[in-house]
Amino acid sequence: MSTKTPVPELVLDQITVRFGGLVALDDVSLRVPAGRIVGVIGPNGAGKTTLFNVICGFVTPSAGQISLGGRSWKPRPHRLNRLGIARTLQGVGQFGGLTVLENVLVGARGFRSGEEPAGRGWPAGRARQSEQDALAALERCGVAEYAHAYPGTLPYAVRKRIELARALAARPRILMLDEPAGGLDTDEIHWLAGLIKTAGTTVLLVEHHMDLVMSVCDEILVLDFGKPIALGTPAGIRANEKVTEAYLGTAA
Amino acid sequence: MTDVREKRATEAVQSKAFKRKKTPHPIWYAVAGAVLVAALTHYLPPFRNYQLATVGAYFTVTAGLTVLTGLNGQLSLGHGALMATGAYTFALAQNRWLALPLSFAAALLVTTLAGVVIGLAAARLRGPYLAGLTLAVAVVVPSVTSTFDDTFNSDMGLSIALDPPPGAVAMEQWQAWLCWTGALITALLLAVLVRGRFGRDLRAVRDDETAARLAGVHVARTQVLAFVVSAACAGLSGALFAVLAQSVSPGAFPLTLSLFLVMAIVIGGLGRLAGALCGAVLLVALPALAQTAGERSGSQRLEGNLALVIFGVVLVVVMLAAPGGLASLRLSTIFRRKR
């Protein structure tokens, strides 16, 4: 968190999504500055995952603009990786027929958001580089020992970490985490908070676990029935009456 | 980090040592296969050589099909039709120019193009719809021969002019060499292709399309490529069958052939080249077995249908005993079962 005003890396401008008659997102705007950790919270069905799907190109917004690094941008899912955007899915979206290492290797495609030129050298050299990236990511998530196991045989918490490793192996500049703490216990969530804080990338976080969100985020966007109802620091959000109302309902 | 790892790594998980299995480069398998085939063709009688050649021709198509169905998850019931495409192209080219390499190239090219067309449609379809589309292809292609009977000579088919084998080589031996050259090159190329990133992407798409897409895999392109590769294999196989029979006719590529191919790779073990080889052997061995059994029983009517029954029974038994297919069987697994 630098003191100078960070450049907005990802900007959502008045995004609206309609599914038939249902308004899933209503005029949502969000500026995500580089290197910041931004949380998106809200009750079930508030449109958090839809917002992620818009950024990933799975859902085309009915209205609104997205820009990445200052340029207008139309996201497409399979191009995210080379743009340096990695996303994890709710639950575990793993390839059951691939070993843990191979799972992570699918994400480590050798596109760098950093200064190194992408895809240089012989294919064999690139494959080795990808493998090093993948192993480093597994090591970072503390699951390197399972590299040659199949994910189906592993406990849920380990699989969640493999999911994180696959996202990190792409060396992303924006990391999008969709309920990374779902189904994890306190120790695991504590570890996860540490990882997010030290990720060194921009992080977008959708999460229900309030302690995690409040402890790691620089900024939080609150959605309720697709409408943005609050945007601010964790302390500000905690004190916001509208947020309390959305979560707990109005006093009778 | 460490505390959690210690806590989570349960006994059951840790007891298994998760080691990577080192496998030799596929080229060694291909070399070993070539040596074995060369030796076999030297000693086997002509009819056995012919059967060996047929195994090679079947292996060419099952190898491609197992990559498509087993690794990429696309079920094709139309590979028999792609084989017919290859066979007819080979026949037409061979009868016109009488140049074996050229005819093989033409067969490969035309089936590859057919694969692109079907693959583009297939990449948009899933499950039963994909099966339906490929089934339609399997039905349509043979009937094309009777629609354009000037070129394809309807049900009679075309006979193929072949140069006599070089030197003092017997025809069956020559056929076996041709078929196995095609089969081993195909299997080697597939094995190399599947080892790297492409193979990983194929399987990732099969297991979870959304996650694959997010990880940077171009799902549609991967699926089309897989289809094209396996179509090319089918085309080569069709051309090899044309060499074997020295003729082509729609009757040689019925719908049941496509179904048999799928059954063979399932029995052999989906997604494994070794399984495709097992399947190819079965495709030759089981009908032969059925024929012998039919002849012994003295019933003419039994003969034609017995192969289907035997295939069905083998499929059921293998799926019960070894769900991963014959190629998944190891001596150690059998031993453990018995204990």
UniProtKB/TrEMBL annotation, chain A:
Keywords: ATP-binding, Nucleotide-binding, Transport
GO CC annotations on file: plasma membrane
Classification via SUPFAM superfamilies: P-loop containing nucleoside triphosphate hydrolases
Pfam families documented for this protein: ABC_tran, BCA_ABC_TP_C
Limits of the ABC transporter domain: 10-250
SMART domains xrefs: AAA (SM00382)
A molecular function GO annotation: ATP hydrolysis activity
Protein name: ABC transporter ATP-binding protein
Organism: Actinoplanes siamensis
Lineage: Bacteria, Bacillati, Actinomycetota, Actinomycetes, Micromonosporales
UniProt gene name: livG
TrEMBL record, chain B:
Keyword Repeat in annotation: no
Membrane topology term: Multi-pass membrane protein
InterPro entries tied to this protein: ABC_transp_permease, LivM-like
Chief localisation class: membrane
GO cellular component, one term: plasma membrane
Localization in the cell: Cell membrane
Domain of life according to the entry: Bacteria
Annotated transmembrane regions: 26-44, 50-68, 75-93, 99-122, 129-148, 174-194, 224-245, 251-270, 277-294, 306-329
GO MF, one example: branched-chain amino acid transmembrane transporter activity
Transmembrane helix found in the keyword field: yes
Keyword annotations of the record: Cell membrane, Membrane, Transmembrane, Transmembrane helix
Protein name: Branched-chain amino acid ABC transporter permease
Organism for this UniProt entry: Actinoplanes siamensis
Higher taxonomy: Bacteria, Bacillati, Actinomycetota, Actinomycetes, Micromonosporales
Name of the gene: livM
